[in-house]
Amino acid sequence: MRKIAFLMIMVLAVTLVSCGSDDPKSESELKTNELRGKYNDKVVGSWFQERQTDDNQVFEQLHFTADGKVTGYAKWLRRTKVTVGGEEVWTDWETEEDGELNGTWYLLWEKGLTWINIYATISGSDFVWYGNSYPFHEATDEYLDFESPFWRISDKYYTIYDKGVSSPSF
User: Fold this and answer.
1) What is the rounded CA–CA span in Å between residue 85 and residue 32?
2) What's the burial of 119, exposed, middle or buried (CB within 10 Å: 0-12/13-18/19+)?
3) DSSP 152
4) Structure confidence by residue, pLDDT tens digits, 2-24
């Protein structure tokens, strides 16, 4: 009888120990894992975008790796209008940024929103212009859709990055 009681206690102890280690995950952790499972492999790769307006020209090339690293290149030119002899004319283009970047990235779900977090610095710059959470929409085999960390010269909106490697046209 002592052997049966001992075996019952051991079975109960093993059952309690194995069940006790499974802490329930928060909704945020579950959603983040789901987001990463669905999109991480699609985000990994090389992406580029180029935008031009009358007063700005922006080019970005981003390379996301599976181990959470991001490298790339960014170029931003800006010009303004000035009045010369009573007439408005554009100034010459001035370089705001032009350099290589490197850092880290990851996807995160937070309170019903999805983010692509990029923490990177651009060489030769006096500040970290990446380094925040940027709203993420989608990634497919052809495009990456999230709010550009660099296209800060316009209202916030998503930017479509094309798959591949390119160079600025300006």
Assistant:
1) 58
2) middle
3) T
4) 555 444 455 445 454 455 555 66
Give the separation between CA 49 and CA 53, rounded to whole angstroms.
14
Distance from C-alpha of 63 to C-alpha of 45, rounded to nearest angstrom: 6
Which amino acid belongs to residue 101?
L
SS3 string, 89-118, reads: EECCCEEEEEEEEEEEEEEEEECCEEEEEE
pTM of the model: 0.77
How many residues can be counted in the chain? Answer: 170
Distance of alpha carbon 46 from its chain centroid, rounded?
13
Distance CA 38, CA 107 (A): 10
* Residue 79 phi, psi dihedral angles, 5° rounding: -145, 165
54/153 Cα distance (integer angstroms): 12
Q: How far apart are CA 107 and CA 122, in angstroms?
A: 21
Structure confidence at residue 146 (pLDDT): 85
Residues 61-115 pLDDT 10s: 999 999 999 899 989 899 999 999 999 999 999 998 888 888 888 999 988 788 8
Residue 137's CB is within 10 A of a number of other CB atoms, namely: 14
Question: Domain 26-163 falls in which CATH fold?
Answer: Lipocalin (2.40.128)
Model confidence at 131: pLDDT above 90: no
